[in-house]
Fold 6-phosphogluconate dehydrogenase, decarboxylating.
Amino acid sequence: MSSDTTAVADFGLIGLAVMGQNLILNINDHGFKVCAFNRTVAKVDHFLDNEAKDTQIIGAHSVEEFVAKLKRPRKMMLLVKAGSAVDKFIETLLPHLEEGDIIIDGGNSNYADTQRRYEYLTSKRILFVGCGVSGGEEGARYGPSLMPGGNPKAWPHLKPIFQAIAAKAPDGAPCCDWVGEGGAGHFVKMVHNGIEYGDMQLISEVYQIFRDGVGYTNDEQGDIFAEWNKGVLDSFLIEITTDILRFKDTDGQPLLEKIRDAAGQKGTGKWTAISALDYGMPVTLIGEAVFARCLSSLKDERVRASKALAGPSNCKFTGDKAKLIKDLEQAMYASKIISYAQGFMLMREASTLYKWNLNYGSIALMWRGGCIIRSAFLGDIKNAFDADKNLESLLFAPFFQKATSTAQDGWRSAICTATMLGIPVPALSTALSFYDGYRTARLPANMIQAQRDYFGAHTYELESSPGNYLHTNWTGRGGNVHASTYDA
Ligand code: NBP
């Protein structure tokens, strides 16, 4: 290995596990000199002698040596376990850094931690960037989707490296652009993961209708998904679903059918749902997708319930199969539109609260390649934000207005079919309920307000005088004193 101790490296990376090693090799491939460091220092030499052999990658055996090897302003990324390891490394690095140096956290950190670290490091005159990295090991090696946010002064220094190593969308555009300030990068990555939960749940619901309702074989379903991948649903997840449906175990039987139906989760879908509740945004589809995983993991209880609880007498589909396939394609497409619209609503709310100045068109562009939710459809979202930067909701974009309007008959029909067959479709149906709720000028919330005022004197507003809170003594008993008005 090189013993050079002068500042020669364009970029430093700390964390030599799967993500770090692959990202370093990717950066090296693009002509940048990288210096590697790791808590367990022996891994540095192992990496240099093996995976990084015959590259221009260099290593360091201490934080001091690592910092000394970086060109100014120093650019260093942490790819270590999310949580206290990030804070620990920041504290270890700080005494060796100078004003204007850049620390990037590329791990799966919670955006609130990123916001906190951004504020702390800004006070120390260090430029902090929280960067969502999507695409797993393969993405890190050959092109991830990168979602950097934090101190915008860092971006001009990072842009040439990040855009070189990022995945490229089909039109060649890099799947990396500046997301916004503070914790924006990790927030956007979190919403990306939540949307991924939603897309996966939608596909799973359609698979169950095909399997249990229609009785299609896995190969027959594989053919339908392959066909869908040529249309509006064209995406990585539809593509891998086709492969999964067609995949045979060593005995020639579909492997999929042998897999236990209890879904795991690592938490980013849950974080998205929690922040949706925190910010009062109706991100219902991701919420249902998280709960559907929770329900799936109650496997033993469900098996008992399957024997105790009755379903409909007819649970086999006997209608027009070709029409059902078309309806389900439209139902999935329209539900996806709702899910993305909800995700962008959540980002807009957080952006307003934290003053992140989120760049919505770029976010759609960043998701077009290198990540799990990559799809042709994201190009349409990008176009919608290009046409109107201040788009209130994706559903107001003429393209998506038309798409949901065209899809709605099939969407409604598919949900009716599933409901009559007793097949659960939480994501498909919550999307439709949201659509109907969103396009309803007068919802029944007046009843809720009246009830709240009746039992708790919580007050209500009249349509004729919004902002003016009134209390009625509904029963003639009790007094006219009302509770303070508040929004929960
Ligand atoms: P891991 O998440 O498994 O973390 C391993 C690294 O963290 C090693 O360098 C390890 O050092 C270091 N580390 C740990 Br563990 N505890 C530490 C501590 N207390 N102080 C300092 N260093 C510590 O690695 P990964 O799977 O490569 O992921 C890296 C980051 O990227 C994570 O935040 C992860 O969530 C995120 N991410 C992962 C993927 C993926 O597909 N794996 C995708 C996107 C993002 P050691 O060698 O000394 O133990």
The CA atoms of residues 462 and 468 lie 7 Å apart. The two ends are 60 Å apart (CA to CA). The longest strand covers residues 127-134.
